[in-house]
Amino acid sequence: MDPSLPAHALWKTLGIRRPSQALLVLAPYAEYLLLERGYSPRGVRRYLQDLVLWLGFLEAHALPPGPEAVRALLLEERWAPRRVQGFLAALRSYYRYLAQVRGEAVEDPTEGIGRPKAGRRLPLHPNPEELKRFLQAFVEEKEARLLTALARFLYGTGLRISEALSLKGRNVLLEGGRPAAVRVVGKGNKERLVPLSKTAQEALGELGLPQGNVPIFTFAQGKRKGHVPSARYVEAKFRMAALRAGLDPRRFTPHKLRHAYATLLVEVGVELDAVKDLLGHESIATTQIYLHASRERLKEAASRLPEL
């Protein structure tokens, strides 16, 4: 992935003043987590700390990355179950990134490693009732109309925040004068057609559809009127709304709305391959499925998303 953040901006965002050589090697991955996966700086720092520990362990013991090395490290550290879960998650995420995003021929070293059980936690993805409370909390914002529509649109399409903010009038396909789908350019400059759920259609209707190259999601007032908000602005406003609603802000990021979209579709019985097509995942298997996907099947899948 080509870097889109200057190095100093990346480390400043993560709160790291003097990155070590090991961290510098992991910079593209850190940027991927921040910009593409929507992780918080705190979450990225936690993953990076685990990976620096892992890579240092491999070097110190002259071991190749694999399940045996993972078991040796866990035996040496003797962490609590939740700490082990976090470490294994960091490794799985990193090696999946190397394989699927960078195209490297690597194996997941956590394959076959048992996951220890830990105490129950709140579901990662908000449910429809929580989402309604979250949306109501935008009433206090000056840009309430924009933020509410954007949140509903993200939930109703499963788009990445970067994909949604880059949409323009020309990206919307109409059927009978109503928005029916959006043409999205995602990771790897790959284009996909995303049918709109009823919630997403209503969100666009509330804003009014612009023409041509005019962006869809823009500020409605003040000095920034007509300008597209940054992803950071949206994330900050989502966090504030969640806190006002008495909700865990970690579960109401733009990326969590994307996951809520996918989770709820699966819960109502939509086939996994259709959900993957709608999300625009990059794996080879998903790409092959996408090439053969039926537009009507995807439209029917999107129509079954519970409304907000």
Report what the structure shows.
A 3-stranded antiparallel sheet has the order 1-2-3. Helix 8 (about 145-155) packs across helix 12, helix 12 (about 255-265) packs antiparallel against helix 13 (about 270-280) and helix 13 (about 270-280) packs across helix 14. The protein has 2 domains: about 5-100, DNA polymerase, domain 1, CATH 1.10.150; about 130-305, Orthogonal Bundle (hpI Integrase, Chain A). It has helices at about 5-15, 20-25, 25-35, 40-60, 65-75, 80-100, 130-135, 145-155, 160-165, 200-205, 230-245, 255-265, 270-280, 285-290, 295-305, and strands spanning about 170-175, 180-185, 190-195. About 55% of the residues lie in helices and about 5% in strands. It contains 15 helices and 3 strands. By secondary structure, the chain is mainly alpha-helical. The protein is globular and about 65 Å long.
Q: Which keywords apply here?
A:
3-stranded antiparallel sheet, 2 domains, DNA polymerase, domain 1, 308 residues, hpI Integrase, Chain A, 54% helix, 15 helices, mainly alpha
